[in-house]
Amino acid sequence: MNRTQNPGPRADRPRARGALRLAPALALSLALAAAPLAADDAVDPDVARLQAELGRLDADAQLAGMGELERLKALQAVQALDGARSRERPGLVYIAEQRVRAAAAAAQADALAAQSAALDRERDQILVEASRREADRARREADRLRTQALARQEEAARLAEEAALERTARAETFALAERAQAEAEQARRLAATREREAALAREEAELASALVAEAMAADAPLPPSRQVGGATVYTLAGSAFPSGRATLTTEANASLRRLAMEIGGRAVQVVGFTDSQGSASANAALSKRRAEAVAAILKESGASGRITTDGRGAADPVADNGTPEGRARNRRVEITVQ
Q1: Contact in structure between 95 and 205 (CB atoms under 8 Å)
Q2: Partner of 78 at 20 to 30 A CA spacing, among 14, 171, 276, 321?
């Protein structure tokens, strides 16, 4: 009988390593979140409510170590409420609530994935145990047949009865295995559902961030600029995007919306750049996506002239890629307004 190998412990190792890497950052964020409450007796009700929700999530032993990245983002969103201006506050509260919900959904998804792996291991153990019992039964039967020479009819009846019992035991064993497999499949479907819910929560948080940026646009500062011939070149730093992504931060979004008011109907060229780390194809694709994201905000916010985009990856560096500071300066998007 073929033995099913158990991948459970190895499959769990990437999740464990990811939790270990996030644990120091999460602990630091918890300490920073607690410090303002200790220093100021006037407790913000929204912050207290959201921190209480995160506390309940942390106190759930079944979800320990689950959804660490989303928990960290939720803590950061709650901390952003401290000192927020009144007109920004509704949007920031909404973002924090969505981050907390996303953290709970991600923890549930991780927990269900772990449950699915446990059910897979249980099924494998059932099959292995069934194989061992059948081997033991076969050995006992062979010993018994060698020692018996009499009572052929009784032996035949006994063997028939034992065969029936064996078939029943085998049927029960496979029924248990099928039930465990069905439960594992259901757990996987639930985990997929939770993952979709977490993705939807992230999309809602990004939409809320765009709404906050629109409200902040009138007072937002323009990106740094320089004159090149008769054109003005605005430079959006690499910190305007999360690492490896083409989604603008709220502050960068607001700054671009302010810039769109200044551009009007003039022609614009948007070019994205990266540092030299990573493959050339990946850098070119990322810089292109970032340029397109900037162009989309400008068009959406009122820039009515012709807008072209390009992604040049690590080409045309403005600083030394051999230092962290130089790489940070090379990660940029340049907006040239004619």
Answers
A1: yes
A2: 14
CA distance 244 to 309: 19
pLDDT digits (tens, 9 = 90+) for 241-286: 888 889 999 999 999 999 999 999 999 999 999 999 999 999 999 9
Quote the tokens at residue 56. 């309940």
Asked if residue 188 lies in contact with residue 127, where contact means CB atoms within 8 angstroms, the answer is no
Distances from the Cα of 31 to the Cα of 18, 275, 309, angstroms = 21, 34, 43
Show the tokens assigned to 327: 């790489």
Q: What is the band of 210 on the pLDDT scale with cuts at 50, 70, 90?
A: low
**Residue 225, H or E segment:** strand 225-228
Helix (H) or strand (E) holding 329: helix 324-330
Cβ proximity of 126 and 178 under 8 Å: no
The secondary structure of 268-301 as a DSSP string is EEEEEE--S-S-HHHHHHHHHHHHHHHHHHHHHT
| Token pair of 236 as six digits | 């959006």
Question: How far from the centroid of its chain's Cα atoms is residue 306's Cα?
Answer: 36
Amino acid identity of residue 86, one-letter, is: S
Residue 284 to residue 29: CA distance in whole angstroms: 34
pLDDT for 1 equals 45
Return the number of other C-beta atoms located less than 10 Å from residue 325's C-beta.
9
152-216 and 250-263 helices, crossing angle to 10°: 40
Look at residues 258, 265, 247, 235 and name the one whose alpha carbon lies nearest to residue 328.
Answer: 235
How is residue 305 written in tokens?
Answer: 């002239």
For 214-227, write each residue's pLDDT tens digit. Answer: 656 567 899 999 99
Q: Compute the average pLDDT of residues 111-118.
A: 88
